[in-house]
Amino acid sequence: MSRSKVSDFVLDEVTEHVYIREVYGKTLVELGSKYPDLVVLDADLTVSTKTNLFGKEFPHRFFSMGVSEQDMMATAAGFALYGKIPFASTFAVFATGRAWEHIRQSIAFPKLNVKIVSTHAGVTVGEDGATHQALEDIALMRVLPNMTVIVPADSVETEKVIKTIIEHKGPTYVRLARPKFPTIFKKSYGFEVGKAPVLREGKHVGIFALGIMVYESLQAAKILEKEGISASVVNVSTVKPIDVQTIVEIARLTGAVVTAEDHSIIGGLGGAVAEVLGEYCPTPMKRIGMKDRFGTSGDGMKLLEYFGLKAKNIVQAVHELLEFNSNRKSVGL
Amino acid sequence: MFEKTKEISVLKEVARNVRIDLLRALHHAKSGHTGGSLSSVEILVTLYFSELRHDPTHPRWEDRDRFILSKGHGVPALYSVLANAGYFPREDLMTLRKPGSRLQGHPEYDLDIGIEATTGSLGHGLSASNGIALAAKMDGKNIRVYALLSDGELQEGATWEAITTSAYRKLDNLCAIVDRNRFQNDGAMDKIKDIEPVADKWLAFGWEVEVLPDGHDFSSLLGAFDRARRTKGKPFVIIANTIKGKGVSIFENQGKYHGVAPTDDELEIALNELGEAA
Question: What is the pLDDT of residues A296-315, one digit of tens each?
């Protein structure tokens, strides 16, 4: 049986589930004292995004902008023009969709130091339904020059990401979600912008994932291991700038790639990895994610199952991919 | 060279030079917004040659007042004013709209030439001005922020989000100016989507409002900016009734010159009217 090597910053077992947006709010509070120039803006979702925690501690540096996402983004740009470090938060669908052109013109193009941290991305929003489930936000932010795009996988990474980006100059988009995420990393996990850590190293298939799908991918790798298939699992938390080197290395090692995301497979992680591999290392791949469709109401985590975004779906994709590869080999391709 | 003044004859001469320079730049570029540049000239000259605390030799001076050209398409007038104030050589105006030039078709954030924000898409500039004004207040800085909006820009919903914010936040360090020239890209505003009653709308949104019947009259502009500075507790808007294409008879109130540069013949007529040999 072929075994894969598990990175030493991955917990052996999940013992807690945490709201990563709450970690965001608490981290803002922690950073508030250290960074007097930190200001936080929100568009009437302060309790949901957890920016209200910062607002309670630092009311004079907290700006509840009302239901005005475009105004919020360009106001954040003004704060950055002055020299402040603005964090602007709301639901992902409004942050990136409603205010996209304000972000493009007033933040990304002039390279302003605005941190857009959205919550409630993906189908895991749940009962609020398709109107509130951003499945395009990674694509919308990734296409903007100068924009850094980060999707943390758990509470440990969320805290590290927020503490890192406050020091990282330039426009940054961070995508958070609504439900509790299983904590998969030890405290020793280190986040670095642009580095995609390999969480497991296996030679048969490379699974690239982000957000909640990193946990599902680790679960899938365990199932595969029992079947004698060793899988690499890579946390592509920085979607942009994407870690081309790691992606190509894993693709070369495995010759089979699966991507997994709670986002449209068009323009998201699946698209980003396909772009890299198409150019540097063409590799057969399968994309797990939302397949050109909108979401629906339902329990957030159960919707992952409903839309085929669980470990078992990744396992199935791996089977299909490996079968495809072996069929190709048998006809001499 | 740059010297601040309230001397109207001096301001008039600056305005004449600014018009000549911007028309030559537009003519050379063979494209750009003639009408809305000419309508803003006196507003910009009053700001840069009298009202703003700024220093063209130290464009990054921390305590400078800020000016945001929310109507970014009018930037030929701003470039011309900045060049005449000494932010960069007047010859550079001939690089307008050329690849690699700092003087792009719409303004791009570039403090060293006095451009405080990237604008051109309408409905952004007042929000950005609010952000600067809020930050300055937070720091207890005596910085004033000025934003020039087009009247067409008042058709953008996002502008009203910003107008609401300025008033709610009591930004008395903020002064907006509306260049009310009554034309937009497709023609006369009252034939497309009338925005009247403009003054009543700003009033209802909680602003101190001053309407200038003649937005090209320097003494009215100086007086209005003075009252804006002395107004406490709320933001101040100057609705300056202007003439699109002001200063050149063939361009005045001609909607078609919104986004068109002068031809050779038109430039010659314009320069003659402005008392400058072509």
Answer: 999 999 999 999 999 999 99
Give the closest of A68, A82, A105 to B131, CB-based: A82
Which residues of B are less than 8 Å from A114 in CB distance? none
Is pLDDT at B1 greater than 60 in this prediction?
Answer: no
Task: Give the pLDDT score at A97.
Answer: 98
**Average pLDDT over every residue of A183-207:** 97
Residue ranges and CATH numbers for the domains of chain B are 8-273 (3.40.50.970)
Domains A5-14+190-330 and A17-182 share a fold: yes
Identify the CATH assignment for A17-182 out of 3.40.50.970, 2.170.130.30, 3.30.420.40, 3.40.50.2300: 3.40.50.970
Which residues lie below 8 Å from residue A216, measured CB to CB, with a gap of 6+? A209, A260, A304, A309, A310, A311, A314
> Annotated active-site positions of A, please?
69
CA distance B72 to chain A (A): 12
User: CB distance B128–A65 less than 8 Å?
Assistant: no
Domain boundaries, chain A: 5-14+190-330, 17-182
Best mutation target, A37, A106, A113, to test chain B (most B CBs within 10 A): A106
Q: Which of A40, A82, A102, A105 would you mutate first to test chain B, the one with the most B CBs within 10 A? A: A82
Residues B137-163 pLDDT 10s: 999 999 999 999 999 999 999 999 999
Distance from C-alpha of B237 to C-alpha of B230, rounded to nearest angstrom: 13
Task: Give the start-end residues of each E strand in chain A.
Answer: 5-6, 17-19, 38-42, 62-64, 85-89, 115-118, 148-150, 172-175, 180-182, 198-201, 205-209, 231-235, 238-240, 257-264, 285-290
Q: Are B277 and B24 in contact (CB under 8 A)?
A: no
pLDDT above 70: residue A218: yes
- Cα–Cα distance measured from residue B163 to residue B79, given in angstroms and rounded to the nearest whole number: 26
Q: Would you say residue A17 has pLDDT above 90?
A: yes
Domain at A5-14+190-330: CATH code: 3.40.50.920
In the predicted structure, residue B278 carries a pLDDT above the cut 80: no
Average pLDDT over all residues of chain A: 97
With CA atoms as reference, the chain B residue closest to A36 would be B139
The two tokens of residue B74 are: 């009018």
Query: What residue type is B255 in one-letter code?
Result: G
**pLDDT digits over A115-127, tens only?**
999 999 999 999 9
pLDDT, residue A95, reads: 98
Q: How far apart are CA A232 and CA A249, in angstroms?
A: 11
